[in-house]
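Q: What does the assembled structure look like for these inputs?
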Amino acid sequence: MRKKQNRTQQPEIDRRTFLTALGWSGVGLSGLIAALGNLLYLKPAVEYGPPTRIRGGKAKDYQEGIKEVLENERVIIVREKRGFAAISSTCTHLGCTVRASDAGFECPCHGSQFDNDGFVTGGPAPRPLDWYQVSLAPNGELEIDKSVKVPPETYFKV
Amino acid sequence: MPITAEMRETARGKMHAESFSSRFKVFWKNVYRSLFRYGRMPRDAEGQSYAVFNNLFLHIHPVKVSKHSLKFTYTLGLGVIATILFLILTFTGIWLMFYYFPSATEAYNRMLDLRSSVDFGFVLRNVHKWAAEAMVAVVILHMARVFFTGAYKPPREFNWIVGVILLLLTLMLSFTGYLLPWDQLAFWAITVGTSIASYAPVLGEPLRKFLLGGDTVGQEALVRFYVLHVVILPGLMSIFIAIHFWRIRKDSGLSHPNENGSSARGGAT
Amino acid sequence: MREVNTKEVFPKNSNKTYGLMELVKGTKPTVGLQPDDMVFTWPHLLIRELVLFVVVAGLLLVAAFLFDAPLEEVANPNHPPNPAKAPWYFLGLQELVSYSAFAGGVLIPTLIVVALILIPFIDRKRIGVGVWFAKQRAFANGLFFTFLLVMLVLIIIGTFFRGPNWDFVVPWE
Ligand code: HEM
Ligand code: FES
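A:
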């Protein structure tokens, strides 16, 4: 193509530099997209674990002040005057399983202690134990949804 | 003495035998020469050079090395020991794969089988385990040797960095292998270890999920750790060890007290 | 270079695009003037490697027959052992984690790796290379030694002096 006559300024970068840069950007971008695709592929998409909604039995079977440990679910069901709570038994420090104690809960791994509401009273744990949402299934059983966390002290009134 | 038919017969047999054995010798020599072009135990400069230069496995080495680098008290042999441990771990690891199964219900049983039923199963598992522990220690000691002899200084900066990558790979290999027996030790060490990752700001929690393939240590985590442990990390390790060795040669061999200013850069041995 | 062997030890092979050029008796060409201290890899280096291999393989076999690799009960997510410990080389970090999970688990390891990578770009003066604990390097060596020592002490504490609830215990009691 012939140069336009009326061009007054030299371009800042010449055609060759521009096309080279364009080419390399294309290569770089495709590489980036491919890398991203591979990463997304590896990102866990499907939960293969046990279901997150679990049943906790009839509400009236629980007495006040009880701490019922559902071992395999890593959940502790607590009944207080204020209602029901489902507290996670996974220690917020490094993931060990806490057990119920007189004062609340304690973790055997590095000695974290929690009170009855899961607040830290000692040890290295940085936050209170997780609270899960409790609701009532149509047949009157308690239902705990481990995928929904609620703020501590959100008791569920039956 | 008249030659009897019988004598002729034996003579012919002997001649035949001789020519067979000599032909076999020639054949054997040809086979050997097709594999190794120079004598078995070369004693002259030419043979000794070619023995290294013409052998795929030996030519990682330069033909000549400095006496200083051969002194045991200089390197303590630590880099070579790390390499040997890696080779032994690769060998025993592949052998263990014939019985191991990365399943949360099966893995532990396979460990018990290796211990009690499989012939020499305990030897392979024990060698793999102790070599792995030793490798972590030896690599750290090798790094200490390199530091205390000032061997990371120019022109060897890059090889020090390759070394840091090798140290991290060694730790990751050891850590991923730790989960595979699926016993209490394994499960809780990985639970605790991966929880530490989640304390990293922003990236921590996703990284932990990524590693475990879920929220907790379970079947998904076992498969992911298995793939990392038997394919990805050993592959990366081999590549970086190759770079490490190549760089030693491009940096004019091992560090040396008489090295002067600029001449070592870019030299090849 | 004092003596040069001009004989064609490695005759040119027209089938190859590369080859050994010549054998030079004398100093290593890249290093300059110094006494010749080069020896042949075969056999001097190879025999050392072979010996090391035999020793390492032998020791591992003996260890394998004498000591069984640990295997505990099958994994049970409901019953953490008390205390739960990471592999030994991470126990120094776990010890730090017991004071602060972020500092011990993330900050300090990251700093260590970054510092290790930066070492050869910070300390570039080519003095004291090739000898153990060179006097001119006393400061750098002292620093690195302290670092190794601190890690070692932390690992020993984590391994032997931490019992149930990560409480301090004395191993010989
Ligand atoms: C899988 C781990 C490693 C293997 C297999 C390995 C192997 C080796 C070998 C065989 C040598 C030859 C000299 C000797 O034996 O000491 C060497 C030298 C060297 N290594 Fe490594 N190494 C590893 C890790 C490291 C680490 C962690 C560092 C440092 C961060 C490092 C830095 C170096 C440097 C700078 C040299 C050159 C030393 C000199 O010139 O004196 N390597 N390595
Ligand atoms: S995991 Fe519970 S205190 Fe560390």
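The pocket of FE2/S2 (inorganic) cluster (ligand 2) is lined by residues A 91, 93-96, 107, 109-112, 123-125 (CB under 6 Å).
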